[in-house]
Amino acid sequence: MFVFSQEQKIFTIGSVTIGGQPGENPPLLIASMFHNKDRILADRKGNFDHAKARALIKKQEELSAATGIPSMVAMVANSAEEARKYIDFYLETTDMPFGIDMWVAEKRAKATEYVAQLGVQDKFLYNSITPWDKDIPGQVSKLKDLGIRHVVVQAFNDKDQSPAGRLSSLEALLAQGAGSFDTVIVDTSVMNLPATSFSLIANRMIKEKTGLPCGGAYSNGTHMWKEAKESWGLDGFRAMDAVAQGMSSALWSDFNFYGPIVTAPRIFPAVATAHMLLSTLVYEETHRIPGNSCLPVRKYFPEFIEKLIAGEARK
Question: What is the pTM of this model?
Answer without folding.
Answer: 0.96
